[in-house]
Task: inverse folding
């Protein structure tokens, strides 16, 4: 390593190498994570749905976003839940993971996700207080 550094000293390649290292460090995505929780349960989330901004993917997932300034950017396929009737009509709860807490880079909680077993979720931290949620249903590919 020292030999490489000595050879680059005073060379125009040093600036190019440092530039690419800086760019690659900035381009590394920051990942959010899903963390299993015991409380709230799926039943508690459904019962208190008005405390959240709720979104669903037909027969695949429910997202309970905290009502605060934090943002969750959703990919296509999500619909807003406007009434408790839509939650009562959900039929996929028997084949889902337990509620998963959506956690950002600074351990901030964005909400809860209940989703079908076999599907994949990718959480990317976009900026302060913002995560992007990409949802891949089983058999539709993924990252």
Result:
């Amino acid at each position: 390593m020292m030999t490489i550094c000595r050879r680059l000293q005073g060379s125009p390649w040093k600036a190019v190498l440092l530039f690419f290292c800086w760019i690659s460090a900035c381009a590394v995505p920051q990942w959010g994570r899903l963390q299993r929780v015991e409380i709230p349960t799926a039943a508690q989330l459904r019962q208190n749905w008005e405390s959240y901004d709720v979104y669903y993917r037909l027969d695949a997932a429910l997202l309970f976003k905290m009502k605060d300034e934090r943002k969750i950017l959703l990919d296509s396929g999500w619909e807003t839940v406007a009434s408790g009737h839509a939650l009562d009509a959900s039929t996929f709860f028997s084949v889902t993971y337990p509620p998963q807490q959506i956690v950002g880079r600074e351990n901030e909680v964005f909400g809860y996700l209940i989703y079908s077993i076999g599907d994949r979720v990718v959480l990317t931290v976009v900026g302060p207080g913002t995560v992007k949620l990409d949802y891949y249903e089983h058999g539709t590919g993924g990252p």
